Amino acid sequence: MLRLPDAWVWDFWLAQDGDTYHLYFLRASRALGDPDRRHFRASVGHAVSTDLTHWTQVADALVPADRPAFDDVATWTGSIVRDPGGRWHQFYTGAGSTENALVQRIGLATSDDLYAWQRHPGGPVLEADARWYEKLGTSTWPDEAWRDPWVFADPGGDGWHMLVTARSNQGPVDERGVIGHARSADLVTWHAQPPLTAPGAGFGHLEVAQVEVVDGRPVLLFSCLRHEFAARRKETGATGGVWAVAGETLLGPFDPSAAHPVTDSSLYSGRIVRDPSGRWVMLAFRNVDAGKRFVGELSDPMPVELTPAGQLKLVADR
């Protein structure tokens, strides 16, 4: 578990270099008092571990840029991949002061050692494309969702893919949450593509997406809480949390309307990773306690498995 006495911890992403896991996480000072204020005070913290349980905090990886910049208010959730030459690429979400932090864009920083990061000098590498995605002011939704980049190599060797928390420009406003998609040949120049999922699945957004092959089947994970459900999904009584749905390939097709909850609202932004023994485990941040108070710390790893029906489940540790 990772709990910082002076800061809340929430969304996170991981990179593995040899036997060392590198954890990058959003952090903001508890001195803010109200945890709802944390989003616009977020930096990217960094900790290392060899077992996914005991973490050693090191220097922060990223902080908001100097003004004016697309990421001068906050640096939010991302992911990390290593290029064929051995250089690490960290993709992250930036929010800037020009639009009062209401427009999200994808930024890039690179590193040779996972500790010292240099921002890409050209500014953001990707933003929402109005051909398929909702832009700020085109609906009653309060912001332009284009965040949480999850980057992975094309299984066939044809470049790279990025999944993004996005919203379609079509359909009822509370049902427009989709998994956005972009492609790149070099990890620097990105081109938006149509979304990988359709609107109308009952979610206002599908946050912190991840795709992995578990027990031979591609699985999409995402997170959504009840207050971001479409009205009809709220009627089911579900509280939200981490969700999963199996697909045919890492690029789908995926049907979020058929997704099942892996956790309740006490855990959020789940990521799955192989532990040192090779088994799949999930980590998530502790969202709320029994009294619905924000917690803001990282869980211990929790074993997961895929059932014969294709549902990702937490299982008792063995």
From TrEMBL:
GO biological process: carbohydrate metabolic process
Keywords: Glycosidase, Hydrolase
GO MF term list: hydrolase activity, hydrolyzing O-glycosyl compounds
Glycosyl hydrolase family 32 N-terminal domain residues: 19-284
PANTHER family: BETA-FRUCTOFURANOSIDASE, INSOLUBLE ISOENZYME CWINV1-RELATED (PTHR31953)
Family label: Belongs to the glycosyl hydrolase 32 family.
Protein name, per record: Glycosyl hydrolase family 32 N-terminal domain-containing protein
